[in-house]
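The instructor's notes for this session suggest beginning with a concrete chain rather than abstract definitions. Hand out the sequence below and ask the class to guess, before any prediction is shown, which regions might be ordered.
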Amino acid sequence: MDRQQVVLHMNPGMGDNSYAHNSIIQNKVMRETKAIVEESIMRLYTIVPIHCFKVADLGCSSGPNALQLVSNVIDIVDTTTSNLNLEPPVFQFLLNDLFGNDFNSIFKSLPQFLESLEEKKGHKLGPCFINATPGTFYKRLFPNGSLHFVHSSFSLHWLSQAPKDLGNKENIHLTRTSSPAMHKAYGEQFQKDFKLFLKLRSQELVPGGGMVLTLIGRDKTREIRTSWSLLGTTLNDMVSENLIEEIKVESFDLPLYDPTIEEAKEVIEDEGSFTLQRLEAVIMGWDANINEGVDDNNKLDLNMRAHFITKQHRAALEPLLKAQFGENVMDKLFLRFKTKVVQLFMEVEILEFPTIVMSLIKNV
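After discussion, reveal the predicted structure:
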């Protein structure tokens, strides 16, 4: 088994650095895109007879967000079937992530979650089955024509692997000074992976089935300023102070790519299995716009905002970084990362990124 499939997962459990306690950005994105999920499911109900509604959530991770889609879909289907005077369906939710994901914490939360659903929906709730399907979504996961709806949030910017033989000794990811060859290699890896993902899902969805995907993107007109490159400069600083071995940084590349909308659209059109219903960008602050709508007396200062950003990144990246650089340097690494985030806020004030949102229909 590929080592990346084992070490690539969010921080497990319910501790201070866990993904469960540090995934507000992902939760906000799911709330922002709920209307698009609703649009896709309502369309499905007008064209496909559904008795058992089968939904896959790819890259479900763990913590509260892992069951957020389940709750959203049940609410949407409840409203839709009531409006159309239809019986509620049986639900089957298939939660997918890599093998190292903390599926146990999801299972432990299920009794309380299902009890809450039954209290809320009562007799209107049909039988609801929730299953785990571990494995990479860059391989087949489900039988042919077995799914009605596929969802993936904040997962597809993770590549199947970092491009090989980059010769990228100074940076762990793309920066504005990276060579054209390195940009080309990352772009081609994304195209290859995303095209494969679409092909596999087209085999698993029923004709006319729907898919809503969100992933971190980038604006092609802006300078590349990502938290990934900021992490790289932090690691290089630690190398210069002999806190991390240089060879460990030189041999490490983050398997991440933030595409532009144009790049995503080109792959969808080239692969050809889906019709694009929606393709748009939702602009999100690195701090999830945490001060938005908050009065001046209660707004977080730069230091607290940087602390929030650092916790979010640690929850998502620590297992991968720990496997490469060792557990003993993690506290120092993220403390220095936080300092750099504060400095960057002071320089540019606004730190944000586009989240690409797309809604697709499998061609009949």
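Then share the key points. The CA atoms of residues 330 and 346 lie 25 Å apart. The mean pLDDT is 85.
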